[in-house]
Specification:
Layout: H1 61-66, E1 84-91, E2 97-102, E3 108-112, E4 117-121, E5 128-133, E6 145-150, H2 154-157, E7 159-165, E8 170-176, E9 191-197, E10 208-210, E11 216-219, E12 238-242, E13 259-262, E14 267-272, E15 278-282, E16 288-294, E17 319-322, E18 328-334, E19 337-342, E20 348-354, E21 357-358, E22 363-365, E23 373-378, E24 383-388, E25 404-409
Antiparallel strand pairs: 1-25, 2-3, 3-4, 4-5, 6-7, 7-8, 8-9, 10-11, 11-12, 12-13, 14-15, 15-16, 16-17, 18-19, 19-20, 20-21, 20-22, 23-24, 24-25
């Protein structure tokens, strides 16, 4: 694997190169689990609950000093060494895929960042059918149609939530999915539940997910305006927590605010572990990309700190990577580990955890084989979906890109 010279990272996802072989298509068999990208199956990580997940974590400063080490004495975590097997190719030929949400029964909804469309992928055949276009999407740079999540009550309300960039801001809307209508016309008019998130050419965040408490979480970016991350009144450089209607969620650090944590640069990965702790991945600048354990009201340092700086009052990340090795986007929890997709790093990282603490150094898989990796989706047990990102303007697309792959992990 060889990379060219790296420009100074003003924060955008830098293009990489790769060589790889393409797998033959294998049908997706029964990805009938709902997950943090939308709903979670009963009894699975991320299911149930009605209050903010507890997230005691190691750290520095007042927040870290009061945090609890949340691994139980008997918790030893998964093995230090894991494994990844690519078991199939769900779909190929996708354009700028970003958000993904599994439907009941195993089909998938996939958002195209640049086209502003949502398509349905059939589990058995891999056939891709456009169900509709989200009006008002203004793609450009890292903006466009980004995160996708199903309502916790999707079985009855059929609502699909989207995070997208407009001409004036980033916002979250919900659209009713009516499968009885003709293909391409199955999305109802968007109902905007939250608006006013700062937009930029870079650092738009974009990941949304419903948590164990059935509240809606969103990762945002500081749009290249560093000061927004520490500005508690700004929505940029934050993790937001709101009700499905877009109101500040009960139990937030400030009752009248959706801000859940701050001091972030560009959050594009959100997941919950088996104990309902919230984890987030974010882009560093020139030195360190981060995996953070999120606690309500905590300050994660940017722009005053990058990586493990040990600053009083600021929370240090649990794990860090050189920016050439990661540029993280989506993350998922499975088999005792957080699995993190790398864009510039073109690899899938495994971070094995005992409670809130790593039990071994992060381990890389699939390096350079599929190019830039955007989204990871847990399907329950040892199964994941992995979405590539070669057609986003910063990759080196080959025939068949972009793809959604199925993985078995341990």
């Amino acid at each position: 694997m060889r990379y060219g010279s790296s420009p100074a990272r003003v924060g955008y996802e830098v293009q990489g190169t790769r060589g790889r072989s393409v797998l033959a298509a294998v049908a997706l068999a029964g990805c009938g689990a709902l997950l943090a990208a939308g709903c979670s199956p009963s009894g699975a990580p991320g299911a149930g609950g009605s209050s903010p997940p507890g997230t005691g974590a190691p750290g520095s400063g007042p927040a870290g000093a009061s945090a609890r080490a949340s691994a139980s004495p008997e918790a030893t975590g998964p093995p230090a060494k894991g494994a990844v097997t690519v078991t199939g190719e769900v779909a190929k030929g996708l354009e700028s895929p970003w958000g993904v949400a599994p439907l009941p029964g195993g089909d998938l909804l996939v958002a195209s960042r640049d086209k502003g469309t949502i398509s349905r992928i059939a589990a058995g055949s891999g056939a891709v059918t456009q169900i509709g276009k989200v009006p008002g999407v203004a793609p450009g740079g890292e903006g466009g149609l980004l995160g996708l999540a199903l309502s916790p009550s999707f079985a009855s309300d059929r609502l699909v939530y989207v995070y997208f960039t407009t001409e004036s801001d980033n916002r979250i809307a919900r659209l009713r999915y009516d499968e009885s209508r003709p293909a391409g016309q199955q999305l109802g008019a968007p109902d905007t539940v939250f608006r006013g998130i700062p937009k930029g050419l870079v650092h738009n965040g974009g990941r949304i997910a419903f948590g164990p408490d059935k509240m809606l979480y969103a990762g945002t970016g500081e749009t290249g305006d560093r000061g927004l991350a520490q500005d508690r009144k700004s929505l940029g450089g934050k993790i937001l927590r709101m009700t499905p209607d877009g109101d500040p969620a009960p139990g937030n650090p400030e009752a009248d605010s959706v801000v859940y944590s701050y001091g972030h640069r560009n959050v594009q990965g959100l997941t919950w572990d088996q104990d309902k702790r919230l984890w987030a991945a974010e882009f560093g600048q020139n030195t360190w990309d981060e995996l953070n354990l999120i606690e309500p009201g905590a300050n994660y340092g940017w722009p005053e700190a990058e990586g493990k700086a040990g600053r009083p009052g600021m929370r240090d990340p649990v794990a860090v990577w050189k920016t050439d090795e990661a540029s993280p986007s989506g993350i998922a929890w499975a088999q005792g580990s957080v699995w993190m997709a790398g864009l510039k790093g073109e690899r899938l990282w495994r971070i094995p955890l005992a409670g809130a603490r790593p039990v071994a150094e992060p381990e890389a898989f699939l390096e350079g084989k599929y190019g830039r990796l955007r989204t990871v989706v847990p399907l329950g047990g040892d199964s994941l979906l992995l979405v590539t990102s070669e057609t986003d303007g910063r990759g080196s697309p080959e025939a068949g890109d972009d793809r959604i792959l199925t993985l078995t992990v341990r």
